C-alpha cells in the first residue's frame, strides 16, 4: 500500500460522504487502500490527529457554517444536508465546534472555526496547519533483536504527556541505570528518554513503554515492563522543528513521504513507533532556546516483501 496515494483517495471518498451526508463505508476504505480498514485507521489518525469519523464531522460542521453564514439556508435544512438526525443534535455539535449557535452563524460577521480538507500530496498542511518541521537525516539500518524495558501504560494521544511525567517521577530511571552494561544498541544516541508506541487500537488508544533498549538475555529488575523487539530493517529519521508540538504533529507525514521517495514501505503488520530524545539534538538545543530534533525509528518491510 502506497500511503500517499491511498490517503488522497480516501480523502476524496470522505469528502463525498461529507457533501452527500452519507455514512462512511469501511468496506470501501478497504477497497481503496487494499488493506484492512483498521490498519489504515492507524495511518489516518497519525496524519490528521483525528479519526475518520471525527474528520467527517469537523468538515461537515465547517461547511454547514459556511452555508449558514453565506446563504439563506435554515439550521434545520443544514442539519439534514450534512447528515444530522435532529435539529438539537446539530445545534449541540455546531456550538461545540464553532463556539456559536447556528443562529449566530447567520450573521455575516460570524467567526467560524474552520477545519480544512487535508491534502496529503501537498504535504505542507495537516488539518489546515502549515508544516514547519523538516527531515534532517534518513538512513536504513538492520537492527538486532532487543528488549524495550521501562514504564508501561495504555494511553492516548491526548494523555501521552502524562505518561512521560509519570516516568520521570517514578523509580524507573534508577532501575534502568542498573542495566547500564546491558544497554544497546549502536544506533541509539545518548538520550534523556525513549518512547516506544505500539498496538494502536480503536483509533485513539495505544500502548507505550518509556525506557531503554537492552540486550535480549538481560535479567530485568522487578517492576520494569519488557517487550521483545524483533530484528529487522528500520528507517531512522531525524526530524527538526521549532518546538516539540511542531514535530509531533507532522512526523508521520514527513516520515511516510521520505520512505516512499526511496521506494520503501513501512511495515504496518509489525508496526511500532519509537521516539528518541537525544542529548545532542533535543535536550541541549531545547535548553539553549534553539530548534530541536527527535530521532525516530520505524520498522520497514524487507525488499523481498515489497
TrEMBL record:
Residues 8-108 form the HTH araC/xylS-type domain. Pfam families: HTH_18. One of its GO terms (molecular function) is sequence-specific DNA binding. InterPro entries: Homeodomain-like_sf, HTH_AraC, MarA-like, Reg_factor_effector_dom_sf. Keywords: DNA-binding, Transcription, Transcription regulation. SMART domains: HTH_ARAC (SM00342). This is Helix-turn-helix domain-containing protein. It comes from Culicoidibacter larvae.
Amino acid at each position: 500500500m502506497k500511503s500517499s496515494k491511498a490517503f488522497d483517495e480516501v480523502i476524496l471518498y470522505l469528502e463525498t460522504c461529507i457533501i452527500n451526508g452519507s455514512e462512511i463505508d469501511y468496506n470501501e476504505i478497504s477497497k481503496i487502500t487494499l488493506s484492512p480498514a483498521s490498519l489504515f485507521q492507524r495511518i489516518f489518525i497519525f496524519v490528521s490527529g483525528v479519526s475518520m469519523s471525527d474528520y467527517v464531522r469537523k468538515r461537515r460542521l465547517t461547511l454547514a457554517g459556511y452555508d449558514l453564514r453565506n446563504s439563506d439556508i435554515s439550521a434545520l435544512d443544514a442539519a439534514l444536508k450534512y447528515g444530522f438526525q435532529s435539529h438539537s443534535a446539530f445545534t449541540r455539535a455546531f456550538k461545540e465546534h464553532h463556539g456559536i449557535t447556528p443562529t449566530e452563524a447567520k450573521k455575516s460577521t460570524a467567526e467560524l472555526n474552520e477545519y480544512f480538507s487535508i491534502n496529503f500530496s501537498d504535504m505542507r498542511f495537516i488539518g489546515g496547519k502549515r508544516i514547519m518541521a523538516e527531515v534532517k537525516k534518513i538512513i536504513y539500518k538492520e537492527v538486532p533483536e532487543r528488549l524495550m524495558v521501562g514504564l508501561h501504560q495504555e494511553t492516548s494521544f491526548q494523555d501521552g504527556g502524562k505518561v512521560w511525567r509519570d516516568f520521570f517521577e517514578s523509580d524507573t530511571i534508577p532501575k534502568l541505570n542498573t542495566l547500564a552494561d546491558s544497554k544497546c544498541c549502536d544506533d541509539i544516541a545518548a538520550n534523556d528518554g525513549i518512547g516506544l508506541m505500539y498496538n494502536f487500537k480503536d483509533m485513539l488508544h495505544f500502548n507505550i513503554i518509556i525506557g531503554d533498549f537492552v540486550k535480549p538475555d538481560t535479567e530485568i529488575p522487578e517492576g520494569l515492563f519488557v517487550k521483545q523487539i524483533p530484528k529487522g530493517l528500520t528507517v531512522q529519521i531525524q526530524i527538526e522543528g521549532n518546538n516539540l508540538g511542531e514535530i509531533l504533529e507532522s512526523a508521520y507525514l514527513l516520515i511516510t513521504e521520505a520512505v516512499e521517495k526511496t521506494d520503501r514501505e513501512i511495515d504496518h503488520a509489525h508496526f511500532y513507533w519509537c521516539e528518541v530524545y537525544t542529548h545532542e539534538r533535543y535536550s541541549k538545543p531545547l535548553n539553549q532556546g534553539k530548534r530541536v530534533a527527535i530521532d525516530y525509528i520505524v520498522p520497514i518491510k524487507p525488499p523481498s516483501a515489497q
